[in-house]
């Protein structure tokens, strides 16, 4: 029969080397488990709908939507990563050192890629609003796919190099059996903070401030000339309005992203002695961002509502459904 001390261990048979479980009231553990499970399921489901929508319907194959699709892929992966966090609720990792290393490295890669995609979205809107004549000729679906691929590859290579010691010998930094930690040296931490947070966030803010200024200027210009436009001019005005609406929606996505990620990076990256509860709350907020993005699309994009309806009713299985005009 297990003693009380053995019951508190991750691996009771490793009495001298096992980590201790995080002892919480059962109600608290169940609340955390249900919350994380719900967020994980909702995040994966909603982002899969975004991925399927943009992949299936040809009318949605635009440079901006390619970036949104890539963001949905990274958000979907966040949902899967949350499921591993659920297994680690009691502070015990049972999946082995290799899986621990892959889980932590994946978290670094996915979170940094999300930020990289946000930078690309900001650049996309900056060019579309500030250089509207240049945008259709130079910013194509193929260019968007190349930029997304470069972003994923660059982030993967950087973090593989940054965390090479953890990958080379998984578990080397564990202080006891059942622990799952990753260790980065001081130079690596500074590099990660600069290139995964401070640098990209600065670029995003600067570009969107510029977009906001230009969008306001264009809106005033359109209002002042609205009574003296030809049919051709009306088409141009409509196009500009469409681009500015897209900028506004993606601006909401960026603002929500910054509100969700800034506390996480500030607590875990800047405040080194942050408590467990503070880190858990900021991680939860960071994870919720991946759930909120598809909800924002559902709120502002009519095409997303239509595509979800067609997906859920299995209309996409019909021949020629990919040519449906849902814009």
TrEMBL record:
Subcellular localization, as worded in the UniProt entry: Cell membrane
- Keyword Transmembrane helix in annotation: yes
Cellular component GO terms, alphabetically?
plasma membrane
| GO molecular function terms noted in the UniProt entry | trace-amine receptor activity
Ranges annotated as spanning the membrane: 30-54, 66-89, 101-123, 143-163, 193-216, 246-271, 283-304
For whether the record's keyword set contains Transmembrane, the answer is yes
Annotated InterPro entries = GPCR_Rhodpsn, GPCR_Rhodpsn_7TM, TAAR
Residue span(s) of domain G-protein coupled receptors family 1 profile: 46-297
Q: How does it sit in the membrane?
A: Multi-pass membrane protein
Q: Which UniProt keywords apply?
A: Cell membrane, G-protein coupled receptor, Membrane, Receptor, Transducer, Transmembrane, Transmembrane helix
Similarity comment text for this entry:
Belongs to the G-protein coupled receptor 1 family.
- What protein am I looking at? Trace amine-associated receptor 13c-like
Which organism does this record belong to?
Answer: Kryptolebias marmoratus
Organism placement in taxonomy: Eukaryota, Metazoa, Chordata, Craniata, Vertebrata
């Amino acid at each position: 029969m297990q003693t009380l001390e053995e019951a508190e261990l991750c691996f009771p048979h490793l009495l001298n080397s096992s980590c201790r479980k995080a002892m919480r009231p059962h109600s608290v553990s169940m609340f955390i488990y249900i919350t994380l499970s719900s967020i994980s399921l909702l995040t994966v489901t909603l982002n899969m709908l975004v991925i399927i929508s943009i992949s299936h319907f040809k009318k949605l194959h635009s440079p901006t939507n390619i970036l949104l699709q890539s963001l949905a892929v990274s958000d979907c992966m966040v949902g899967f990563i949350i499921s591993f966090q659920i297994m680690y609720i009691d502070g015990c990792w049972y999946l082995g050192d290799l899986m621990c290393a892959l889980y932590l490295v994946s978290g670094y890669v996915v979170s940094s890629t999300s930020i990289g995609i946000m930078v690309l979205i900001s650049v996309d809107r900056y060019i579309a609003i500030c250089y509207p004549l240049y945008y259709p000729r130079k910013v194509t679906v193929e260019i968007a796919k190349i930029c997304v691929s470069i972003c994923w590859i660059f982030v993967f290579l950087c973090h593989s190099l940054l965390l090479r010691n953890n990958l080379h010998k998984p578990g080397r930094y564990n202080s006891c059996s059942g622990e799952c930690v990753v260790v980065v040296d001081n130079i690596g931490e500074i590099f990660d903070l600069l290139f995964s947070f401070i640098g990209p966030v600065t670029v995003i803010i600067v570009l969107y401030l510029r977009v906001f200024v230009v969008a306001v200027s264009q809106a005033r210009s359109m209002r002042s000339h609205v009574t003296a436009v030809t049919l051709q001019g009306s088409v141009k005005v409509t196009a500009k309005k469409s681009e500015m609406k897209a900028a506004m929606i993606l601006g909401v996505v960026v603002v929500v992203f910054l509100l969700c990620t800034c506390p996480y990076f500030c607590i875990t990256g800047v405040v080194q002695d942050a408590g467990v509860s503070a880190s858990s709350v900021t991680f939860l907020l960071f994870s919720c961002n991946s759930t909120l993005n598809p909800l924002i699309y559902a709120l502002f994009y009519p095409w997303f509502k239509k595509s979800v309806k067609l997906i859920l009713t299995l209309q996409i299985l019909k021949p020629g459904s990919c040519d449906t005009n849902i814009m």
